[in-house]
């Protein structure tokens, strides 16, 4: 018996990194998992990995028409959602003096606007008692150089989760923030031209002395998705190796 037998779940940004690991874990716990992302080839590979418990829908969460098409597909195939992991996000480095309109609009367009409408448009499909998980970041708590815009988007994510937990409590829908620390994903490696040096710098800051693995974050997603976290809402679950705790 899995933690999510007979349940349906959606993971945005589900073709790589934390999203893919979470989709694999939710499917292993018995859920049928819908995954979405912008790159069809990666989505197809993810479905091949997960198997018949996965359905892929190509789309961009910053595009409201794509979101409508995504939810129409879910409605036609499952009728409702028990778990929403709003994971899709982008990150990029830029110190204050180098922030451009494009940099700001891209990060806020996906990480904040896209998140808002991902959750809003899911509301008619969310079953009473569903679990909504939004993907935050330890950067939302601190002032690391060159990550100001990204950190601001993640602070907004945390604020949204608190408000939505309050607004959806009448339906028994729990809303929580998952807050990963540095995790060894393709997105992390893509932040700088020297990813190995960057990773080693991050490792020196993590009390447990290493980067997180996507599967470790996925385990926390499965916990928040399941009845094991039935009395938790409005919270932030840190999976950060102690980075922001010690």
Descriptive labels:
8 helices; 7 strands; Rossmann fold; 246 residues; single chain; alpha/beta; seven-stranded parallel sheet
Describe the structure.
- The protein is α/β, with parallel strands linked by helices and 246 residues long.
- It has a single domain (8-239), classed as NAD(P)-binding Rossmann-like Domain (Rossmann fold, 3-Layer(aba) Sandwich), CATH 3.40.50.
- 43% of the residues lie in helices and 17% in strands.
- It is built from eight helices and seven strands; from the N terminus they run E-H-E-H-E-H-E-H-E-H-E-H-H-H-E.
- The chain has a seven-stranded parallel sheet, sandwiched between helices.
- Helix 1 packs across helix 8, helix 3 packs parallel to helix 4 (101-122) and helix 4 packs parallel to helix 5 (148-167).
- The radius of gyration is 17 Å and the shape is globular.
- The relative contact order is 0.15.
Radius of gyration, CA atoms, in whole angstroms: 17 Å
What general outline do the C-alpha atoms trace? globular
What distance lies between the first and last C-alpha atoms, to the nearest angstrom? 37 Å
Q: Major sheet, described briefly?
A: 7 strands, parallel
Placed side by side, the strands forming the largest sheet appear as 3-2-1-4-5-6-7
- CATH H-level superfamily: NAD(P)-binding Rossmann-like Domain
- What's the total number of strands? 7
Beta-strand share of residues: 15-25%
In helices, the fraction of residues equals: 40-55%
CATH hierarchy: architecture? 3-Layer(aba) Sandwich
Mean pLDDT over the full residue set? 97
Give the CATH topology.
Answer: Rossmann fold
Low-confidence stretches: none
Number of helices: 8
Order of helices and strands: EHEHEHEHEHEHHHE
Query: In the CATH hierarchy, what is the class?
Result: Alpha Beta
Structural class: alpha/beta
Number of domains: 1
């Amino acid at each position: 018996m899995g933690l999510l037998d007979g349940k349906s779940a959606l993971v945005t940004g589900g073709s790589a990194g934390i999203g893919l690991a979470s989709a694999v874990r939710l499917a292993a716990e018995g859920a049928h998992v819908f995954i979405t992302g912008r790159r069809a080839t990666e989505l197809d590979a993810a479905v091949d990995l997960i198997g018949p418990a996965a359905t892929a829908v190509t789309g961009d969460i910053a595009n409201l028409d794509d979101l409508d098409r995504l939810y129409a597909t879910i409605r036609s195939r499952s009728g409702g959602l028990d778990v929403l992991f709003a994971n899709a996000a982008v990150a990029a480095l830029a110190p204050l003096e180098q922030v451009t309109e494009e940099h700001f609009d891209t990060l806020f367009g996906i990480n904040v606007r896209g998140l808002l409408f991902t959750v809003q448009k899911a509301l008619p499909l969310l079953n009473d008692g569903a679990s909504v998980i939004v993907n935050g970041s330890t950067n939302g708590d601190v002032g690391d150089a060159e990550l100001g815009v990204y950190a601001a988007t993640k602070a907004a994510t945390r604020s949204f989760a608190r408000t939505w937990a309050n607004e959806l409590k009448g339906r028994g829908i729990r809303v929580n923030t998952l807050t990963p620390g540095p995790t060894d994903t393709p997105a992390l490696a893509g932040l700088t031209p020297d990813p190995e040096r960057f990773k080693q710098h991050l490792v020196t800051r993590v009390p447990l002395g290493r980067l997180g693995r996507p599967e470790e974050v996925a385990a926390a997603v499965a916990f928040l998705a399941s009845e094991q976290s039935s009395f938790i809402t409005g919270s932030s679950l840190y999976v950060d190796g102690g980075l922001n705790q010690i």
